[in-house]
Specification:
Largest sheet: 6 strands, mixed
Distance between the termini: 71 Å
Order of helices and strands: EEEEHEEEEHEEHHHEEEHHHEHHEHEEH
Mean pLDDT: 82
Radius of gyration: 34 Å
Helix content: 25-40%
Structural class: alpha+beta
Low-confidence stretches: 111-115, 360-368
Shape: elongated
Number of helices: 12
Strand content: 15-25%
Amino acid sequence: MPAKAAGGNAVYGTYRGLTVYRFWDLPPGLLTPRQLKREGLAVTPRQRPRAYAYWRYYGQTGYAPLYRKRGARPKRLASPAQLAALARARFVLHAWRCFDCGELVNDGGRPDVGETGTCAPCRQFRAEARAAVDLPALAPVLRETLPGVLPTTPLGPQEWAAALLDSGPVIVLDTESTDLHRWVLELGLCDSDGAPVFSSLVDPRAPLAAGAVKVHGITADALAEAEAPVFSDVMDTLGRAIQGRTVVVYNLGYDLHSIAREVHRHARTVVGLAGAEAVEYTRTWLGRARWADLMHPYAEWYGQWHPYWQNYTWQALPYGDHRAPSDAAGTARLLRELAAGTAPRLPESERGPWSYDDDDYDRYGYEY
C-alpha cells in the first residue's frame, strides 16, 4: 500500500527528491501549470515545484510539477496587438491559397471534393460558367477531326509548310486563357507575314487562375481598365477574319477547345439554342475555316525523339512572350522559317527516330 502523507493523500513515490502523488489524489493547494492557467494564474519565475503528480495516458506515463497556488501570480493578459498577431498567425496556419484567385482563404475547412483549391466566390464563378456550356454534348465536336483540318503527315514538315503558304490566304491565331479550363482571355490574329489583323482582350466572365496570370500577366484590373468586351462582342470580327481561310495555330487542340467552348456558350446564352442545335451551331461556326496545327510538324522538324512513346517530342513555341498578339506573330515567323528550312532544330546526329536497340541510346540522356 502506498504511504500516506500528513494530509491523508497517498504518496506514490519520489522524483527528483520530491514527493510524487497520483494525479487523481493531489493535496489541496498544489496545482499543475495547466490547472493554474485555468484559474487565471501563472507560475512566477522564482517559484519552484513542491511535488510532482504521476500521470498515465494510453500507455504513456510522466510527472507533472506541482506548485503552491498561493505563490502564483495573476496571469498576464495579452495586449490587443498580441491578440491581433496571434489571430493572423492562426489564420495563416490553417489557411489555404485559392487556385483561381490566389487569395489566402480560411473558411473553417478545405473545399468540397471536386473543387479542391478554390474559394467560395471562385466556385460560384465556375458553376455559373459551367452552366452556360453543355460539355457532354460538346465533347464530340472537340474530339472529332473537323472536315477542314489540314493533314500534316503525307508531306515532310518543310514541304507541308511551303504547300500551306501556297494554298491561299493564311491567318495565324493564338489565344490566352484563364486557366486549364480554357476560357478565352485574349485573342491575337495576324497574317502569314506577321502583320496584325485583329487583337483584343476578352472578359472571360470567369476567375483568373493565379498560375495563368504569372504566365501571361493579364490581371482582372487590366481587363477592367481596358473595358474588355465579352467573347460574344468580338465573334463577328473573328468570324470575318477567318472566313474561308486557313487558320494556323500552335497547339491547335488547346486553342480550338477554348474557342469552341466560347462559341457554344454564346449559342446557349445569347442565341438561345440548346442541345443538338447549340452543338450544330458550334460545329458550323468552326467549319467556316480550315484549321492547321503547326506544333506537330515542327516537332518532327526539330527532331527530338522519345524512345518510349516512339514519336517526336512536342516543343515550346520558340518565339513570343505568352501574349496572344506576340505569340501569333511568333507562330507566323516559325511557319515561314519552317517553309524556308531555317527553323531551329537539333543537329542531325541527335535527331530521331531511333529505338531502345540503338547502340548510342545512352548519349541522349535517357534512362531505362
